[in-house]
Amino acid sequence: MLGCLADHCSSMCRAPAIGILFISLFFSVLSLTSTACSNGNCQVQESCSAPQDCGAGLYCGNCPALGKTQPFCIRGQPTIPNSIINGLPFNKYSWVVTHNSFSIVDAPSLPGVQRLTFFNQEDTVTNQLRNGVRGLMLDMYDFSNDIWLCHSFRGQCFNFTAFQPAIDTLKEVEAFLSENPTEIVTIIIEDYVHTPKGLTKLFTNAGLVKYWFPVSKMPKKGEDWPTVTEMVQDNHRLLVFTSVASKEADEGIAYQWKYMVENESGDPGVVRGSCPKRKESKPLNSRSASLFLQNYFPTYPVQAEACKEHSTPLAEMVSTCYNAAGNFMPTFLAVNFYMRSDGGGVFDAVDRMNGQTLCGCSTVTACQAGAPFGTCKNVAVPNTSPVTNTEGSFTGSVQFSRSSSTVHSPSFLILFLFYFPLSL
Q1: How many CA atoms lie within 13 A of 112 on its CB side?
Q2: What does 2-53 look like in DSSP terms, one character per residue?
Q3: How far is CA 6 from the centre of its chain?
Q4: How many other β-carbons are positioned within 10 Å of the β-carbon of residue 123?
Q5: Is the model's pLDDT at 161 over the cut of 70?
Q6: Which of 335, 299, 313 is nearest to 66 (CA)?
Q7: What pLDDT does 379 receive?
C-alpha cells in the first residue's frame, strides 16, 4: 500500500493506505503521550516544559554552558542525611553551605546607590534553608551605626557594597529554627565587626541565643561532636564560628580554625587535582579538628557557568580534597549559586558524600538504618527518587536565559576589582 502511494496510484489504492498511515501515526502519538512524563512525574534529566512537570525536590531548568539548552528536571534539594541514618555525631555528616549567602542577585540596594559588587546566590536565605542548605557564610561589618552584611574589601563596608542589616538575615534563621525543631544550622562569619560585644548583642537581639551551641562543649582536640540527636534534645542547634580568634574568649564565639580545617577559597580551590589548605587552617589531614570546610567556588562568580562547575568538576574536586585530607570527608561543602547544575549537582555530590561516610554506599538514599556498614539498597545513581525533605520548593530568581556576566558583572566592575579586590 505504501508503495502504491509512492507511485501515485489510483484514489482507491491511496485512500486505504492513508487510513492505515493515519491509524499508525495515531497510535504512535498515543504511545508517546502515555510514556512521556508530566504532572510531577518527570525525574532528574528528563525533559520538562513547565515547573509542575518535575517531581518532588526538582525544578525545570537548563544548562547552556554545557550545550543543554532545552529544559529538563534538575535537583533543587538534597536528601537530609539524618532522616535516613540518625543519631551519629554531627561531624560524620556532610552539609550544603552557601558562600556569601546574603549576596543575592536582584537584592535591592540602598536608595539612590548603585551596588558595585559580585553576587553569589539567587534566592532568599529562608528559601535556601527550606531547600536543604544547612550552613551560611556571612560577611559582617560595622556600618551605619549597626552591623551589616556586605560583600566588600579592605575590611570596610561601603554604601555600594552593603546588602542589609545582619539582624534581618539572622531573624530568618531564627524563624527557620523555630519552625523546624529538629534542624541544625551553622553560621560561619567573615568578621569585620569591631564594636565591643557587637556580635553578642546582634545574636541576642535576633533571638538566637536559645539555640546556641556553647563553645565549652565543642571538641577541642578532634574528638567527635555530640550526636545530632543530642544536639536537638539540648536545643543546641546553632553553631556559630568567627574568623577573629579573640572573640572566643571575649564573646564566647568559636574561633573557626580551632575547630575546622579548610581548603583555599576562590580560584585556588577549584584547580583540578589540587586542594591546598587555607593559610589560617591547620593541614587538611590534621586530626586535631573534627570539622572540614571545603570551599568550591571561583573567585569571580558567574551564574551561567555554575551549572557546568557543579557537574563532573565538582565530583572530582570532592574526591581530590578527600584524598588531600587523608580520607577525611568534608563536613561542609560551600558553593555559589547552589541550585544550578546539569542534573544532580551539589545535592547529588552531598548525597554521595553522606552515603560513603554513613553507610559505605554510593549515595545516602541507598543506606538502610540498622543494617551493617556496606549493606546498600539497589538504587540508581544519580538518585532519581523524590528527595526526603519536601519543606521548600525553589521560588528564587534562577533565570537560565540570562547571564550575570552582562547584567551584574560589567567590565568596569572587573576593572575596579582588579585594583580593589573584594573579600571572598
Answers
A1: 0
A2: HHHHHTT--HHHHHHHHHHHHHHHHHHHHHHHHHS--TT-B-TT-B-SSGGG
A3: 58
A4: 23
A5: yes
A6: 313
A7: 83
Do residues 379 and 385 touch, judged by C-beta distance below 8 A? yes
Place of cell 552582562: 406
Residue 171, classed as helix, strand or coil, is helix
Q: pTM for the whole thing?
A: 0.85
Cβ atoms of residues 95 and 331 within 8 Å: yes
Q: 3-state SS of the chain: helix, strand, coil percent to 5? A: 35, 20, 50
SS3 172: helix
CB half-sphere exposure, 417, CA atoms < 13 A: 19
Strand-strand pairing, 146-150 and 135-143: antiparallel
Distance CA 330, CA 197 (A): 31
DSSP string spanning 80-131? -GGGTS-SSBGGGS-EEEETTTT-BTT---STT----S---BSS-HHHHHHT
Select from 253, 325, 244, 250 the least CA-distant residue to 292.
325
CA 359 to chain centre: 22
Q: Which residues of 83-106 are buried (b: 16+ CB within 10 A; e: fewer)?
A: ebbeebbbbbbbbbbbbbbbbbbe
* pLDDT at residue 27, as a whole number: 39
Task: Give the H/E segment covering residue 165.
Answer: strand 162-165
